[in-house]
Specification:
It is an enzyme of class 2 (transferase). By secondary structure, this protein is of the alpha+beta class. Helix content is 42%, strand content 20%. Strand 1 (11-16), helix 2 (23-37) and strand 2 (45-50) form a beta-alpha-beta unit.
Length: 59
Amino acid sequence: MKEHMRTSRKRITMASLYLGTGPLEQELVNTLEETLQCPGSSNLQISILLDYTRGSRGQ
């Protein structure tokens, strides 16, 4: 999945119940940030859909 993110030039769309706080999740976010900063990604659109109620449990 990360490799596909790195080579995306038009759009990245992700949907999940929640985004955790562990090292794998951080690596995923870092990959998205790196992809946005690559030359040629000025038209890249990223959409992330998360379940608000699931992500707010335990607070």
